[in-house]
């Protein structure tokens, strides 16, 4: 081998061209790999991150709204707790149990003020179709007026209604059969 400058230059040019081809192939493959990574990896990742960010902001808004609602609930609870003394009279109107003894005492007074006396009293059972209602059947006799009797019974402290009234006059006195319903708050409605 002899030293030929042209041959060495030609070989150098050929090596340079091969290197350029190898470099451009590697660069093209690297660029293609990067684009594939961007299209199939980074872009979906960015979409997921943006969706997660939206969910995070929505969650924060919901959390703020829940905190506001909790504050409102505490205020309302305080108002109700401070107002319990105003509800005490309602215990007399609709107690938590039938309390027939005290009610019958009131009925006795109301009927005697109306000019009637009680011959017989019977209390019915609480019917499942109408929880919180106790029917009471009264047999009365006297010389009073029926409208005063009904008014006195319906104006008692306890909430009560006259459901049925039958009367028969006999020798100047009136026999009255009266069906009255009294009301109370059953246990299942308290909670």
From TrEMBL:
It comes from candidate division WWE3 bacterium RIFOXYA2_FULL_46_9. Pfam families: PilO. GO terms for biological process: type IV pilus assembly; type IV pilus-dependent motility. Gene3D superfamilies: 3.30.70.60. InterPro entries: PilO, Transl_elong_EF1B/ribsomal_bS6. Keywords: Membrane, Transmembrane, Transmembrane helix. It comes from the Bacteria. This is Uncharacterized protein. The chain crosses the membrane at residues 25-46. The lineage of its organism: Bacteria, Katanobacteria.
């Amino acid at each position: 081998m002899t030293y030929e400058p042209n041959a060495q230059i030609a070989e150098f040019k050929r090596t340079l061209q091969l290197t350029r081809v190898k470099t451009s192939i590697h660069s093209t493959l690297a660029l293609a790999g990067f684009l594939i990574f961007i299209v199939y990896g980074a872009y979906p990742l960015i979409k997921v991150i943006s969706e997660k960010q939206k969910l995070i902001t929505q969650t924060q808004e919901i959390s703020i709204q829940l905190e506001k609602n909790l504050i409102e609930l505490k205020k309302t609870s305080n108002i109700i707790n401070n107002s319990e003394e105003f509800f005490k009279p309602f215990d007399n109107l609709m107690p938590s149990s039938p309390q027939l003894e005290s009610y019958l005492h009131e009925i006795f007074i109301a009927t005697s003020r109306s000019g009637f006396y009680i011959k017989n009293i019977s209390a019915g059972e609480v019917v499942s179709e109408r929880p919180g209602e106790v029917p009471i059947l009264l047999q009365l006799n006297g010389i009073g007026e029926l409208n005063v009797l009904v008014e006195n019974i319906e104006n008692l402290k306890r909430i009560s209604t006259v459901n049925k009234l039958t009367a028969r006059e006999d020798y100047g006195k009136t026999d009255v059969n009266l069906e009255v319903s009294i009301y109370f708050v059953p246990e299942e409605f308290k909670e």
